[in-house]
Each structure stands twice: as C-alpha cells, then as structure tokens.
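User: Working on a comparison across species. This one is Long-chain-fatty-acid--CoA ligase from Sheuella amnicola. Can you predict its structure so I can line it up against the others?
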Amino acid sequence: MPSSTHFAERLATLAKTHANHPALIDRHVSTSYSELHRQVGQLAGNLATLGIKPHDRVAIWLPNCLAWIQSFLACAHLGATVLAVNTRFRSKEVADIIERGKADWLIMWPDFKGIAFAEILADVEQQVLKRLRAVITLGDPDSPAINAIAARKLNVHNFDAQLNAPCPPPEPFGNAGVLCFTTSGTTSLPKFVLHDHVSLITHGDGMKAAYGYDEHSRIFASAPFCGAFGFCTLSGGLVTGSTVVCEPVSDTDSTLEQIERHRITHTYANNESILKLFETASSPKVFESCRLFGFAVFSPAITNLLEQAERNHVALTGLYGSSEMQALVAAQPIDPSQGDISVRYLAGGRLIHPGARVRVRDPESGQILPNGESGEIEINSPSHMVGYLDNPEATAKAVTDDGYFKTGDLGYCVSDRQFVFQTRMGDSFRLSGFLVNPAEIEQVVETLPGVKACQVVGATLGTKILPVAFVILQSGASAQPESWTAECKRRMAGFKVPVRFEVLTEFPSITSANAVKIQKHKMREMADRLLASENY
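Assistant: Here's the predicted structure for Long-chain-fatty-acid--CoA ligase from Sheuella amnicola:
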C-alpha cells in the first residue's frame, strides 16, 4: 500500500493500482477508484474556481452518500477544513456550527428524505448566515427548497454543475487540518475536534492491518460519516483499496439486504444494532461472507450479544474510540497471541497501532494505577487529534505533558496496549448512538416559558437511554409539556428532545466543603422509575 499520508496523493495512487476496483457502492451503484479520482479532481477544480481556498471552512450537511465522499476529498485536495454536520441537527445546532465553527461554505441536500433542510436553515438567524460565501446544493436547482435558500440572499451553486464541468484541479495543498467532528465534551458548548491528513490516513492504514482488510474486503458503513464511528469505517476502507458500501439511511432490513447482496466482510455498529441483525436474519447463511463484526457499547443492558453471534457464526469483538482518538482505535483481540481474549466481548480493546500506549490514572491522587485497577483511561496514539479547533486552552487541558489524551472514561488496563472501558466518568450519555452533553439540552429547556432551571439525565428503559428533563418553575408558572416538547423539536435534533418533563421544587443536592453539588445520580434513579411506570 502506498505510504503517502495525503488524501489527494493516496487517491491518485489507488486510481492506478486499483483503477477498476470498486471504491464505493452507494445505493447499489458502484464507483471505481479511477472514476472517483477523476470526479474529485474535477470537483476540486471547480470549487477552487468558486473561491474555496486553503484553510477555508466548509460545512458538509449530507447523509452517507457518494457526494459526501466527493465533497470531503475535494476539500482535502484544496486544503480546506470540513466541518461535518449531522443530518439530524436542527436550527440551533446548525447555527452553532456555522457561527462558532466559522464556516465559509455550506454543502447540503435540501430535499433529502423529506427533511425540511431549507426550513431548518430559514430558522437560523440571518446574522449567522451572513458569513457564508455560498451554499452548494444537491438536487433540482429549481426546487422550492433551493429557491427558499436563495431567497435568504445566499449565493447558491448546483453541486452537479461543479462535479461535471471539466476543470483541472490545482496542485494538492500540503498536510493541514482537514476534518472536524463535533463533540459534546464536558462543557456547555460542543467542541470541534480537528484532524489532519496524517492522523486520518495513518489511522486508516492501522485499521487495514488490525482488521484484516484486503482488496476483497467489503465494508458496510452504516454509522453517519459526520461522526468518528462512521468516518473511520469509511476511511479505513477507502484509503487502503477496499470497497465501502453505504446508503443514506440504514435500518435492520436494508442492512441485511446489503450484507447478502454485496457479500459484506466487515461492519461496525453499536451493540443494539448488531443484536437486531442477528435476531432478524432469516438464517446464519445471511452472514456467511462476514469475517468480523465490531461493536461499541451504546446500550449496556444488552447481555445476549455473544450468544447471538455464536449462533450466527460471526466473529465478534468489542471496540473503543472517540472523536479525539478516532473510532476503532482499539478492539479486543480474537487471537490469544495478541492479548487477553477473556475480555473479548467487553468494550475497550487492544490499541491497533503498535506504538500506541494506554494507562489508567487515579483521578483523586493523580497516580498511575496498576493493571486491573479502575481509573481514568489515558491514551497515546498516532490517531490523536491535532486539537480542538480555535480552542488551545481546551486542547491543553485534554492532553498530558507527555502526550496522552485524557479520555474522561473509566476503565482498567490489561496491559500497556489493552484495556477495558467501563463507563463515562462524567454525566454525558448516548442518545441514538450520539454522545450528548446534558448541558446542551438544559440550555434550550431553560429558555422555555415558565422554566427557571433544568437538569437533564439519561434514563434507562429496556436497552435504550432516553433524555428526561427535571425542571423548577418560575414563580406563578405552570408546566407546559406539550408546547415545551414542540419548541425543543424545532430547535434540537429529535433524539435530544426530553421524553418527559418532571417538575420539582428543588433539585436533590448535597453540601460539600467546597460547594453545593446537584446529585444527578438520584435524578437518574427517579427518571428510571418514571419511565418504567409509563409507556414510551
């Protein structure tokens, strides 16, 4: 495999060595490496003509599709930084990415899947949109949705026109920050996690070695490309000459169809999604092409995944990753020569890069702990982020003096390369697969009529985590759960909207020597009981 750690150079090499080999299969339509190289070069040339230049910031608001990959690779060629936007985001979140992320350009698909992207954009204040130099849109250029965007006094360009018009690309820009994931982190505002060409491609090469990719591998990417889990599934295949299979929207039935039709060898998903595949498949024969399924633990209550994997004859292993370190940075070993296989079905893993190291620190004493003792996981790996975009203070706080990333996760070491993840140390929780900081939701709820204060927790119902909001009302106010829910749906992604609002006169708390601390664990217990007594 070529040693270049620049996306443009790597793609150019693969266009020669794997010319007719499928790079991507999107909705059953195949695109070869040579064709993808031609498309990306042409798109890069036209985007440069529009005015996209090195260090510009381009927000990509697209589902998993060929256009997402073409857009990302064209921006990488030009030295622009991609701000990856979740298609489930609503006005407040999109505005935040445009404003704090300092987006110069926006690429979007206004008519995708009936989602009212134009209306969401219309709900973003004009003052925020003013910084956009243009919006590049997929779809019919005369559609009402695209006309509505133009009516916001925004420059609009058609994506297909930029893709298809002959135009030679400029010389590739050198290594630079190329991709930003958004993460909730531990503060009230999401952080933008910046990676460059070197960290992303080095990690892709590491995945090839660790997960056994070759030119016969077919990797199904169901997680959104906008997040580390989905992007690393994509990049690990794309930069190493394998074939990536995707579709804009995946569910259990469509995934099973893709596995059978395209002879999928690898896929990675949360444990709940993989369990559904095993339970829904008509027979183990569906999975006969599969070499490895990797899972991340998003639903801790699931206990029968191993049993189902064995019944369906699928090799299964636990995974670990983060936006800062990239997804799939660790996987529990299957081969005893690679590590302790007794913890194979637990989250965490053996770091895939030979030079990477893990350690665990006592959060109170600051001492490094011996193997088997739980503390905060710290990792040093070549997949490490460049830093938090425009936030050197947060970057400095997240990294130790000797280069280890402080994950904020609780776990224990098995060796200096293998560990077990146990839980998040803070109050963040996963909703629909996305790590969410409750402060994001609390900020919105506290602006609602009648609400004085809010605390949000993740409640467990069966195998799912659902957000529950506890509120204290303003004097004389009454609860308005229906209108509160409607406003939350307008301003936030649906998975962040509280499933219940519970009014309290005060939040449970404890007074320590330093402060009055709200006891979220007590509210989680209350929320669990509330949901158990209702039908959700």
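For your comparison, note: The chain has three domains: 35-174, 191-424, 429-532.

User: Helpful, thanks.
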